[in-house]
């Protein structure tokens, strides 16, 4: 075992050391990597260290350098050193974090990390925090708590009796909500097509007057029925935030308010950006992803629910073979029974950064995004099509065809990684800044790459 771990550590160190100089894109595609690995299922096993070497040799050419400071695809954060080390320990310690009795250390670290998160984000200290897999399951878990609470107020026990025959539930979502909201509603049996879609402005922010009209119309048609309103902290294209005033408005109609803040919720930690989340702290639940902004390894979503009892009722269960007491077990905050101890990495990242470091890191992401916007907007026939208020930049070139060509050429060239998308009917190159490794030199190299590739695309016409 020792030799295998040393082999893996050496390979990990070599990978991390290569990030400053290697291309961000993968050398081999999925078929090439599979071809190297493919063989009949071996009759005999192999030494653990040899298995690690074989895996490294086959996988390395197919790795995308997502931890690189020049990776700006989708919204994918990097990994802080302490969080990476804690992740290795998490696997080595092999704790099942479902029960207090099953891993006192795993449960205790999650408890303290939860307290720090709520403090950093300015959320109620009495809220309950579930350590889930990612932003998708954070939304699912929070909306499960919402479903429980609003139906319980209407006299319906959804955990016992299901949805068949339950009071009709009204769900209100913004026109530019993230797709994970629709998926969570689908998983919860609420049907994404049954949601009332509220208009958004040109930056993707939910329109407050439109929400009020929708709620008034719903109250007229279905007086007093259970309702859920879903808001967004950080539009995936523009980075825009739904207005905090929507929380009080929704509460007037008895709605549970959930905030999908996968990456944007962390703006609350930066004094310069805290105004973006003002009012959202009064919501009933919040979903976020510690990987995207806190820079911990994957498998680290956070479901934060102000009404702890609602979360425990929606997620928790008891069984004779479990060792349980009156205190809620971690399994009462997440959809899983068995799971890894996700709190170790989150605690480590928060301990490494502290309040000042976390604030500076988040503000730094926004500063890098603002620099991208300034320097790319200065290129001929290039425009920034969103108001850059946080970490997202949408770039459009002379026309959609040129934008697609630049995006494809950039991803093939490998100096940087920026992903194409379509926003408001226009093809854009989307730049998402969320990696603590990114520095001024990385931004400069990325801008140079865009400039160079743009020249090549235009020169080839």
TrEMBL record:
Its cofactor is pyridoxal 5'-phosphate. Keywords: Decarboxylase, Lyase, Pyridoxal phosphate. The modification N6-(pyridoxal phosphate)lysine is found at residue 292. The keyword Lyase applies. Pfam families: Pyridoxal_deC. One of its GO terms (molecular function) is aromatic-L-amino-acid decarboxylase activity. It comes from the Bacteria. Signal peptide: none annotated. GO terms for biological process: carboxylic acid metabolic process. Belongs to the group II decarboxylase family. This is Aromatic-L-amino-acid decarboxylase. It comes from Serinibacter arcticus.
């Amino acid at each position: 075992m020792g030799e295998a771990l040393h082999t893996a550590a050496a390979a990990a160190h070599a990978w991390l050391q290569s990030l400053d100089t290697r291309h961000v894109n993968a050398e081999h595609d999925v078929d090439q990597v599979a071809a190297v690995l493919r063989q009949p299922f071996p009759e005999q096993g192999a030494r653990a260290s040899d298995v690690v070497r074989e895996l490294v040799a086959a996988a390395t050419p197919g790795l995308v350098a997502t931890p690189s400071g020049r990776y700006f695809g989708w919204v994918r954060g990097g990994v802080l050193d302490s969080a990476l080390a804690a992740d290795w320990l998490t696997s080595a310690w092999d704790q099942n974090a479902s029960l207090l009795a099953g891993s006192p250390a795993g449960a205790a670290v999650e408890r303290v990390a939860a307290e720090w998160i709520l403090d950093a984000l300015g959320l109620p200290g009495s809220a309950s925090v579930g350590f889930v897999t990612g932003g998708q399951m954070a939304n699912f878990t929070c909306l499960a708590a919402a479903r429980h609470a609003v139906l319980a107020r209407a006299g319906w026990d959804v955990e016992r009796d299901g949805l068949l025959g339950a009071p009709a539930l009204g769900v209100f979502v913004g026109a530019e909500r993230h797709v994970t909201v629709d998926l969570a509603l689908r998983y919860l049996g609420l049907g994404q097509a049954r949601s009332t879609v509220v208009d958004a402005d040109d930056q993707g922010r939910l329109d407050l007057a439109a929400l009020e009209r929708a709620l008034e119309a719903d109250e007229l048609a279905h007086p007093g029925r259970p309702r859920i309103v879903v808001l967004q902290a950080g539009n995936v294209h523009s980075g825009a935030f739904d207005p905090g005033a929507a929380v009080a408005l929704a509460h007037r109609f008895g709605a549970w308010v959930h905030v999908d803040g996968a990456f944007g919720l962390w703006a609350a930690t930066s004094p310069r950006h805290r105004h973006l989340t003002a009012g959202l702290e009064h919501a009933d639940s919040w979903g976020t992803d510690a990987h995207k902004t806190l820079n911990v390894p994957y498998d680290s979503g956070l479901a934060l629910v102000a009404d702890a009892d609602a979360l425990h009722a929606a997620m928790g269960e008891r069984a004779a073979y479990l060792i349980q007491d009156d205190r809620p077990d971690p399994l009462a905050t997440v959809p899983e029974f068995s799971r890894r101890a996700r709190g170790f990495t989150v605690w480590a990242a928060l301990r490494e950064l502290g309040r000042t470091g976390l604030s500076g890191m988040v503000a730094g992401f926004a500063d890098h995004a603002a620099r991208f916007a300034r320097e790319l907007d200065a290129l001929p026939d290039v425009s920034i099509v969103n108001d850059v208020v946080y970490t997202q930049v949408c770039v459009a070139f002379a026309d959609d065809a040129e934008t697609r060509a630049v995006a494809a050429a950039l991803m093939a060239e490998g100096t940087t990684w920026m992903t194409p998308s379509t926003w408001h009917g226009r093809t854009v190159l989307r730049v998402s800044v969320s990696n603590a490794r990114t520095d001024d030199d990385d931004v400069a190299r990325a801008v140079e790459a865009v400039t160079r590739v743009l020249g090549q695309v235009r020169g080839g016409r």
